[in-house]
Amino acid sequence: MAKNIATESPDMTLQRFDVGPRYSEMALHNGTLYLSGQVPDDATQDIQGQTQQVLDMIDRLLVRAGTDRRHLLMVQIYLADLADYDGMNAVWDRWVPDGQAPPRATVQARLARPEWRIEVVATAAVPNASGERG
Predict the structure, then answer these.
(1) Contact 41, 34 (CB under 8 A)
(2) Are 30 and 12 contacting, i.e. CB atoms less than 8 angstroms apart?
(3) Which pLDDT score is estimated for 13?
(4) Residues 66-97: pLDDT tens digits?
């Protein structure tokens, strides 16, 4: 299993999760959680299926860090083809809690694998992670 590493200094705590040789799955610093780009496990699915997989992964990571999608601060969505925009949004709109839509950017980009149609990067607040009351 991947490992967590915590780095502490007098003014901050930095915790990395699932540290690999190239990147960490997520990092928590001063009550802010940064997720790496999330991509689908099953790239044979259409954009709606791939989007749902990615959003489910984000949910699991947020819960693991002690937060949830209501605390998203910013989301960046990368689509291999902007023709998938409406299909992605159909899933996104069901996923985002009413009145809690975070700031978001959506761009077209060539993704690392041609079968991936979507990659999502998210940043979230983690209540109580830095002594704040949630």
Answers:
(1) no
(2) yes
(3) 85
(4) 999 999 999 999 999 999 999 999 999 999 99
Tokens 């749902």 belong to residue: 52
Angle at 78 between CA 75 and CA 84, to 5 degrees: 115
Structure-block tokens of residue 111: 């993704």
Nearest to 49 by CA among 14, 15, 90: 90
* Under 8 Å between Cβ of 84 and 45: no
Cα–Cα distance, 1 to 102 (Å, whole number):
32
Distance (Å, rounded) from C-alpha 84 to C-alpha 117?
8
Which residues make Cβ contacts (< 8 Å) with residue 31, sequence separation at least 6? 125, 126, 127, 129, 130, 132
- Tell me how far apart the alpha carbons of residues 42 and 35 are, in angstroms, rounded to a whole number: 20
Domains of the chain (ranges plus CATH)? 19-124 (3.30.1330.40)
